[in-house]
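Dear support,

Our group has been running a series of protein-ligand predictions, and this particular one with adenosine-5'-triphosphate is the one our PI (initials K.S.) wants archived with full inputs and outputs. We had some confusion internally about which version of the output was final, so please treat the block below as the authoritative record. The input we submitted was:
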Amino acid sequence: MAQITLKNICKEYGDGFKAVNDISLDIADGEFMILVGPSGCGKSTTLRMVVGLEDITSGDLEIDGRRVNDLAPKDRNLAMVFQNYALYPHLSVRDNIAFPLRLGHNRIPEEEVDQRVREAAEMLELTEHLDRRPANLSGGQRQRVAMGRAIVRDADAFLFDEPLSNLDAKLRGQMRTEIARLQRRLGITTVYVTHDQTEAMTLGDRVAVMRKGVLQQCASPRELYEEPVNLFVAGFIGSPPMNFLPARVRDDRLELPMVSAPIPEGIRDELKGTEVVVVGLRPEAIKDAEVRTPPAGAVVFSSTVDVTEWLGNEQYAYVPFASDPAVQSTLEELDRDLDGEGLRTQFIVNLDPSSHVLEGEEA
Ligand code: ATP
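Confirmed final output from the archive:
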């Protein structure tokens, strides 16, 4: 097992474009670390630098305290599982799993190869498929073969690059649980790249959120959800996303589009002198006052629902709002900063599914 440390890592491509910009991360021994972010944010490049498939432009990469920037991939003892599994079609499952053990100078005796392959196959429930070719396996089984190849090597860490993105939704869910179970059992340091926030939130001990090559926040899933450090993380984590509502600050109150609310005690001083703020409200933080009696101190408002979506276990209501023209320039600035994600004209409420809210109704 291994501790992996990234110190001010940068990746610059020929044209001066910084795909990864000054990333520092401490991945603990046995930790499951997720790298997540929108397409092109640099997460794969970061992983490829760790495994040695990409040169590091500047910064230091350490494994167990040893600088490995210049170490060849094969000498880093890290096992990478790719999105397309990279299996050899002409080899059986057995030979695919055994492949890394038959490489290099320090050949392992065939008996030991066989033993390790059988153990890995057992763990991954592949024993009965050992003689098949990859073409005769399901996507999930192929995925397990790819993981088997990583396991037999006794690698110090697993590195996954979007391993589930080719699978259908059901299988993705199953494989996600399987990867989680396996990683907990083996307790092996794991770095996992995904753009799927469900994978990020369910698998990671910690999640590193990246944007445009820059690390935004690295924290436990709960901390990311409850205490995002900026609007990008707030809007990226959570589905449906957090609502952003513009508000004017007037004395001790916030003038939101549909209601005025007292400023919470703890941030009153911080907001002194500020005219416009963006209020982040999770959809589930807004409740249906007809279903549940509002607790003391709750801010009650009524709005017209535009569209509802009933999903059985939850119900979303989309509520349009018009902004005060005075907050427009702040909103436009926010929108530029969030690549068009900031300027919203509706907010989402996650209602109790038993609420009978009809579209066009006041709720
Ligand atoms: P995705 O989820 O789409 O795979 P990602 O977050 O993994 O995205 P990377 O593949 O790490 O993103 O790419 C980061 C940025 O670097 C992108 O803007 C990409 O276009 C750019 N990039 C990647 N490889 C090269 C290259 N060889 N030369 C120039 N630019 C590159």
